[in-house]
Amino acid sequence: MFTPKIIFFDIDDTLYRKESDTVRPSVARAFAALKARGILTAIATGRPPAAIPQKIKDLAQEAGIDMLVTVNGRYVEFRGEPLHAEPMNEAAIAAVCARFDQKGLPYAFVNNRTIAVSEPVPVVEAALSKILPDHPTDKYYYRSAPVYQMLVFYNAARDAEIKPIAAEAGLKTVRWHEEAVDMLPAGSSKAGGIAAALAKLGLTMQDAMAFGDGLNDIEMLQSVGFGVAMGNGTPEAQAAARYICPSVDEDGVYRGLQALGVIAD
Question: Which PROSITE patterns match (predicted)?
Answer without folding.
Answer: COF_2
